[in-house]
Design goal:
Rossmann fold; 9-stranded mixed beta sheet; 32% helix; binds 6-O-phosphono-beta-D-glucopyranose
Amino acid sequence: MSGAQVKPSSSYINVPPAAAKPAPNCTLVIFGAHGDLTKRLLIPALYNLIGAKLLPDGFRLLGVDRVEGDDTSWRYELRDTMEEFTKDRTAEFYTPVIDGGTWNWLTDHAHHVKADFTDDADIERLRDMVSGNVVFYCAVAARFLSVIGDQLGKAGLLEQKDGAFRRLVVEKPFGANLGSSQALNKALLARADESQIYRIDHFLGKETVQNILAFRFGNGIFEPLWRREYTDHIQVTAAETVGVERRGAFYEPTGALCDMVPNHLFTLLSMVTTDPPNSFNAESVRSMKQAFLESLQPVRPENVVRGQYAAGSVRGRDVKAYRESPGVAPDSDTETFIAMKLEAESWRWSGVPFYLRTGKCMSGRRTEVVVHFKQAPYAIFQDTPVDRLAPNNLAFNIQPKQGITFGISAKVPGPRMDLAGVAMAFRYEDSFRQEPNVGYETLIYDCLVGDATLFQRADNIDASWAVVDPALQQWATGRSPPDLYVAGTDGPEAAAMLLRRDGREWTSIAS
Ligand code: BG6
């Protein structure tokens, strides 16, 4: 498509952010103080929240870890990682300079606690260090989530007394299938109320993902088309150029389906497909999402394609096969690519297929949801048969491009009435000032102020696993080797066939 660009009205330019108030005084306890998540995402997000004046003077950060350390050494370690962001202009979270005042504010409020959360005496020591409002953030491997919940519960640290809140933030993966996610939810709910548990899906922290709801429900003209009468199908893509890198030990037992589908891809899909909630509060939004997830039919294993990258080249960079990565078995059957077709039984979506795919080492980096509308019924143009009219589609570009692209047909200049597909594009950077953002700012702030709208409820998680469970169960019955694809391509041929057999094509990734 050519790129005819429509600029939004200038009255939209640089709208200041809505005046948000600083969060209430509280202590944020992070388990996993030395981990990658803390250093690369949580600390930069806190730094940005301080810059936006959204943390209160009575904020305290306790970084808990078994690793030896003290306040000074931890601060140096955090600073080193922050400085990496100032050096690499191409880095996603590029930060030109670290503001001294903001950084000092953060480190003055941050303390290192050497403690082992499996040790009762250490947890009791932690209990003596906190009072009032406390958020416990589990930035640790998934196998420790229920352990931390248990330990905090046993020590009375999750009891909410005298108007103070106690919250527990858990990261994905939430279990590895329906059974284990139910068990994890049960274990956490034995120690805390659902309203105290904040299950993070970091895709919901992305502005562009939140904008899907703003676009759909803040504009009156699209919703009438958002149904089976006008929608042909919907595609969700999360294509990455990176490989498994140093994460083999985590990825090997996980694979692309569990890593990305019931969490991130379903989050994207449900933002696009959910019915309008009555208000933008946590229960309304999550209940509408739940209604959609429950309408999704369990996937049919024959509608699932698994792939694994073989050696190849991604954007000019030579890449070794997945099986040669550190921590990966030489005969591994773990999938690094997955594509599937899903269907929903609902008044709105019955008969509209949803095609989802995600993979590592693909031809390009692109996360998007594309709503493909039905073809015009009849071509009035003499030389243009209806099957040559480009059907309209609307793409929510999540990353790296951030915006919305509308695919339409337009007349090619000249004496003939020839049509060509063109694009109308809205780009965030054209209309709004770019604020520093690593994607966790809104999520941390929302948790501190008690707004769970962007977090997953227990039933959302279980309903998502229920959809993919038939595939997981089938794979568990024996070897099911994935199809190999050359690194730097768009996945195995079977993924293309999944759509071709329905007379459709995937949207291109690399362009
Ligand atoms: C994580 C997965 O949850 O999401 C990773 O574990 C994946 O494997 C990542 O690379 C993708 O997130 P983003 O924000 O980089 O698109």
